[in-house]
Amino acid sequence: MEESGTRIVAVSNRLPIRLVHGPDGLEIKPGTGGLVTALAPVFRNRGGVWIGWSGGTDDEDVAGLMEPASREAGYRLYPVRLSADEVGDYYYGFSNEVIWPLFHDLQTRCNFKPRYWQQYLKVNRKFAEITTKHSSETDYIWVHDYHLMHMAQSLKELGTERNTGFFLHIPFPPEDIFMKLPWRAQILRALLEYELVGFQTMRDRKNFIQCLRHISSGIRISGRGPVVTVIVGDKRVRVGAFPISIDHDAFARDAKSKKVADLAWYLHEALPDQQVILGVDRLDYTKGIPERLEAFKDALSRFPELQGKITLVQVVVPSREEVSEYQMLREELYRLVGEINGKFTRSGWVPIHYLYRSLDRSELLAYYRLAEIAIITPLKDGMNLVAKEYCACNLEENGVLILSEFAGAAAQLHRGAIMVNPYDVEGMSNAIHQAFHMDQAERHNRMHRLREIVHHRDIFWWVNNFLEAAIAKDLRSFPAVEDYVPEIPLASN
Ligand code: GDG
Known about the structure:
- The protein folds into 2 domains: 2-244 and 458-477, Rossmann fold, CATH 3.40.50.2000; 248-456, 3-Layer(aba) Sandwich (Rossmann fold), CATH 3.40.50.2000.
- The chain is 44% helix and 19% strand.
- It is built from 18 helices and 17 strands.
- The radius of gyration is 23 Å and the shape is globular.
């Protein structure tokens, strides 16, 4: 490589961009989802590199789009090209039909096809080859998420010496669930090839260490606190809990802007004398959306004083729509919303406003600002950034957060939120009732507490903690440069 000194090379399944077919051919748009929200602001203008799949298939030539995209992003982007077969078996297959459901404790949804595993290995190797090409020995390779658990091992198999760290954005399951994975030993051994393995919560870290005991009887733990060293045979791996977060100040600042404030006022004016209860989720069966709609229906039935006084705004962002399970969920949601609105709607009041699309950032922030209650009830979630974003944008500190016990965010936010079991429809319905009637003083106390946590434990705190554990450095070693333009070497692909 042409530069010396440590650079951070992020590697994730997807680049932080989306390819969209526009009137003039392929166009580049910012990516969506938790990983991008969290990492993009940290990487901007700091001289780093991001390697990932562009989202298209082999036949689409995306290399030419990377230069403008890199300039726009403020770091270099290098695409990994995948064939349609690889996308089918590595991404939709192994990642999303095996690891995603299993790690969210939904093992009955898993499809353990052996050919998925073979493609997973092949694609991890492909990522390792491209990372080898675009990095040097002094770089720090920071691999993200469940699609790439095998990458450090693939790098070693290629003879590439790099300092590597891994962060798992989704939960790590308890041993009795993890052990169902036919490739459990290979995955655990592959994770031990990283120098540092990070999880969202202490519970995930505990589950991982518990699973390691199954492949080796002689494991030892040294150190205390969130990051410990695990010694398995001749391997020493640092293993830590690093709860991911958001750029709190950017959310709070943008929520305060006139544009968002005006939009929030305008949207709430259309719902006079209502408390708005807000749900925002990617279309996913882990997010507990049908159970939440059932709970809302139950609340309207058991607490009739809520009728005409509360409106659920449920935003569902389309995701993985090519997969039949996601199509079925989409249909189920339409059916449930139709049933509830059909039963309760009356002149001047529609109980559920259902938005099945992605909102632009201002609109999303306006909903965060105007909602008196947020209801975030995943069946299981690595962290859940929406919960933190809602708190950051609740400038008046009068909102109520209803939060699932099984979101990673619960470990930090449980004292200020109303905690619920997302499988307990009546319990969630009681929580809606409690939130609706909560007085201003209690709302303020709880929300103030929540906002303090999100403010102090923000995304910069998270990155610094990880880098500190990984390379004994923090972001001050990678200062952001105004108007930074990443150099794209010619023949970059
Ligand atoms: C994975 C883990 C973990 C949502 N709707 C819109 C929109 N969003 C943005 C939110 C938020 C992100 O998408 C969703 O993040 P989550 O954390 O809630 O969930 P996942 O996408 O499943 O993320 C998760 C995360 O990784 C990070 O480690 O927390 O547990 O599953 O940032 O704001 N953004 C826009 N319009 C929308 O309509 N612009």
